[in-house]
Design a protein that fits this description.
By secondary structure, the protein is an alpha/beta fold. The protein is built from eight helices and seven strands; from the N terminus they run βααβαβαααβααβββ.
């Protein structure tokens, strides 16, 4: 099978709010020491690979991660785009789950039964994110004979896989995109797709999606 397009999905390194289990969304916090290490390992994994274009979320944590990668790919076209931003959690951003639950009494219900289509307070729904990412992918999929790197976020990475492989929301929920995992997706002229994942810390690799009991 001849592949015409290769997409590489990378997530930003761990941030301070990731470490503190806070809703992050469109708000930002800096990479931790571990996050910087993860970003450097991603850059090392990609070093030596020809990358035609890099599309990066315009949020600071993604830019900070991409900066380590870009150093090794001065020839690559780089764009920072809003479409690759994480899901907006609106009023919940910066809060821990317990803090958010105090402010939004029906938060648990929103995060289970209705979370797919009801926006977070002054934020987005998961369906909003799926549609936003889907529109961006339509533009990317028009490119041929390219290797494209997308540097984004957990929710965005899952939504990319959801759109490309036509996953329902339950299947999407089983897919994990930890900071140290890179996905490589190859797309043929006929539209066939193959997916692999690589752990830049342990060196592990596998076909299909990376699955854990808890993402």
């Amino acid at each position: 099978m001849i592949f015409l397009l290769e997409l590489i999905l990378a997530r930003h390194g761990q941030t301070q709010w990731n470490k503190e289990a806070r809703f992050q969304g469109w708000s930002d916090s800096p990479l931790t020491k571990l996050g910087v290490s993860q970003a450097k390992k991603i850059a090392k994994f990609l070093d030596g690979k020809k990358i035609d274009a890099i599309f990066c979320s315009d949020l600071g944590r993604a830019k900070e991660t991409a900066a380590f990668i870009i150093q090794h790919h001065p020839e690559s076209n780089v764009e920072f785009v809003e479409e690759l931003r994480e899901l907006s959690f609106g009023l919940l951003e910066g809060k821990t789950w317990n803090d958010a639950a105090d402010d939004v009494p029906n938060l648990f219900e929103l995060e289970t039964k209705d979370r797919l289509f009801i926006p977070h307070p002054r934020g987005e729904s998961f369906e909003d994110l799926r549609k936003r990412v889907g529109k961006f992918l339509k533009k990317i999929l028009k490119l041929h004979d390219k290797r494209i790197l997308l540097v984004s976020h957990d929710g965005v990475g899952r939504s990319i896989l959801q759109n490309l492989f036509d996953l329902d929301f339950e299947q999407r929920g089983n897919v994990c995109h930890p900071h140290e995992i890179i996905y490589v997706i190859k797309i043929s002229e006929s539209g066939e797709k193959a997916c692999e994942w690589f752990n830049v810390v342990t060196g592990e690799a596998g076909g299909g999606f990376y699955i854990q009991e808890q993402c």
